[in-house]
Design goal:
It is a single chain. The protein is built from 14 helices and twelve strands. It is an alpha+beta fold and 408 residues long.
Length: 408
């Protein structure tokens, strides 16, 4: 007998026993929904994290900073625990192949224009900051090499700083007072935006819009008598150079402090690897939870299929008596359970996709569904139906038609 005939028999039986069919499919529907939701949530979080890294300089960016786990014990205190201007110059001389080399010194300062005040983070930077951090000027111009050489009192402000101090007034060319020094506004940074579903209009990159930028030399020579640098950002030419550059620089920084591991080189690519690993671990755990729902659905399928076999013993006996082979009976019941699981999987996918929008709002977390997720969910649901229906189908195919008909 053909597969289509067996499918037809399965559909007829499902229609005649709607209640039993719905109960059989319920576990598969819930399991498929949970798998779609899990995959979409994890994928959405992964994509947002990658976007965040791209907005902060991309996977080719590295940063030199004080080691987060650095222990200020008695021995380490005899060494300078800050990056100094002289250290920056040595690094630049010994590693000329570093791209978009951008040291940075940051302070929280009060800015004043006329009767308005605004407290913000002011960063002393190099011109390469724009490329190193992927944050560019929107109006006017940014810091130039000439500004660095002359230690000019010029400033590029974020859009929130501009709104707070100037409102609708044109800010370019105006003077802002910082620590009793006048700084000329030469530029306004682009508005940094990053849309995240479920965040109800909140911009997680808005903290950058509240910052301002002046020449590093001006920060170190004219605002503060301090030669320390908070961090150094830069990029490498290709992903193959990230690890070697990171290792060479770590050794160099260690040598600068007589073997003390005071500084470290952090790479965005390492952060990406950690994100991928964390996402994969989370996905595995949640997939197991979703898989349990499918397994429960499979147990329900097995139990109901066994009951169905007992109810349809006469039908099985008649079919075998008129020439149906054991494999025909096996295929008939196997196709029926598999078809019910496929149908339950399709319904689960549809309901799962509909659920994602509610999850975004409720959890304030982005989701991202793609065709691969749908395929995975359907394959798992069909697989569960096939495995769960195999034992009842085998039991049905091994029935003795003579005993069945005599019993009936």
């Amino acid at each position: 007998m053909s597969i289509f005939y067996n499918i037809k028999l399965g559909i007829v039986d499902m229609v005649h026993n709607v209640g039993r069919t719905l109960i059989t499919m319920l576990g598969v529907i819930l399991g498929t929904m949970s798998i779609i939701a899990v995959l979409a949530l994890v994928q959405g979080g992964r994509e947002q994290s990658i976007r965040w890294l791209e907005e902060r300089g991309g996977v080719l960016k590295l940063s030199i900073d004080t080691k987060w786990t650095f222990d200020l014990d008695e021995r380490s205190q005899i060494y300078d625990q800050r990056l100094m201007l002289k250290d920056m110059r040595l690094i630049r001389n010994y590693f000329p192949d570093l791209l978009n080399f951008s040291p940075e010194s940051s302070k929280w300062l009060q800015m004043k224009y006329k009767d308005k005040n605004y407290s913000t983070r002011v960063n002393g930077v190099f011109p390469a900051y724009q490329e190193a951090d992927n944050f560019h000027i929107g109006e006017g111009r940014f810091i130039t090499e000439f500004d660095i050489e002359q230690a000019n009192r010029v400033i590029a402000i974020g859009v929130r700083v501009k709104d707070a101090l100037f409102g609708k007034e044109n800010a370019l060319g105006k003077n802002i007072t910082i620590r009793n020094s006048q700084f000329k506004v030469i530029g306004i940074m682009e508005e940094k935006k990053m849309e995240i579903a479920g965040w109800r209009g909140h911009n997680p990159m808005d903290w950058l819009n509240r910052q301002s930028f002046i020449p590093l030399t001006t920060m170190l020579k004219k605002l503060f008598a301090d030669q320390s640098i908070n961090e150094i950002n830069f990029q490498v030419a290709s992903s193959d150079m990230v690890k070697p550059t990171q290792e060479r620089l770590n050794q160099f920084l260690k040598a600068l402090r007589n073997g003390e591991e005071i500084f470290e080189v952090r790479a965005n690519s390492d952060r990406l690897e950690n994100i991928q690993k964390s996402s994969n671990d989370t996905q595995l755990i949640l997939m197991i939870v979703g898989g349990i729902s499918l397994i429960v659905g499979g147990i329900v399928i097995t139990n109901i299929s066994l009951a169905s076999v007992k109810e349809r013993l006469r039908e099985i006996g008649v079919r075998m008596a008129v020439g149906a082979k054991r494999k025909d009976i096996l295929v008939q019941f196997l196709i029926q359970t598999t078809f019910m699981s496929l149908l339950g999987g399709i319904v689960g996918v549809i309901m799962g996709l509909a659920l994602l929008r509610a999850l975004e709002k409720f959890l304030s977390s982005p989701t991202s569904a793609n065709p691969n997720m749908i395929i995975i969910a359907l394959v798992l649901s069909v697989g569960v139906g096939f495995v769960a229906g195999f034992f009842p189908a085998m039991q049905a195919s091994r029935s003795d038609p003579i005993k069945i008909l005599r019993y009936e």
